[in-house]
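ok trying again, last paste got cut off:
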Amino acid sequence: MSTPLPATIDATETLLAGEDYVADRALATTLFLALSLRRPLFLEGEAGVGKTEIAKVLSRALGRRLVRLQCYEGLDVASAVYEWNYARQMIEIRLAEAAGIQDRDKIGQDVFSPRFLIERPLLQALRADAAGPPVLLIDELDRTDEPFEAYLLEILSDFQITIPEIGTIRAPEPPIVVITSNRTREIHDALKRRCLYHWVAYPDAERELRIIARKVPGADQRLARQVVGFVQELRRMDLFKLPGIAETIDWAEALIQLNVIALDPRTVNDTIGVLLKYQDDIAKVQGSEAAAIINRVQAEMAAGPR
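nice, full thing came through this time. structure:
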């Protein structure tokens, strides 16, 4: 059974919190407006900050079907929207010929009917659903080519898709659209204008602690503060890829598995691959730098809140 859309910003925050997503006020406001105005939500930010998770949380919290289009270079209409089932069409043509049907127009109309259509995510998202319009996640749009962006304009403007052999298919109700981008390239203004925009930044220490408390409830509070403090220090460094929230959660879970109760240089050196994914970054942090970061974190914890 589907849940009604939140009626206020506070209700939106509560909806997200119910699925253990700790959002700041600005994100909750933009999401509330996107739902209320039925506009696509465009989320940009570094990898691992929780952009994709928002669509998943909405799907679960609202009781809606999640339709995910994972973007990649070379993505085309056949993979994203629809394609014809050519194998079944050939069998149908052979059967028609064996039955003595010679009318080519009739055969053509038969094989290009909806029953031979293979629906991909974008077309699936326009279909009616008893639980309500689905949540359409267009993930990592920046990985696709610009021509595919242009194709999306018709869908995001009118929520319709034109199939030459069948006609135009319109959504009875617009789906809830969440588009994400890691900003490896700029997305065209024409597409952004159709969306409400929000930049998802790395969380501050207080919010990251709240995230750890929800996502890793088994983490000791002291260890959680050390983990968050260490990650916050890493994000101030000149690294090729800064750790995201996902890596913070993974590291906290890994430390619990190892029965770690407090950070020390050896533990950091042994587990740093959970946080950092590039050898050059790991080399910068391992050893004396890791020890120095731990000392700074412990000093801040001893000093208490400022």
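cool. The longest helix spans residues 288-303. The chain has 15 helices and nine strands.
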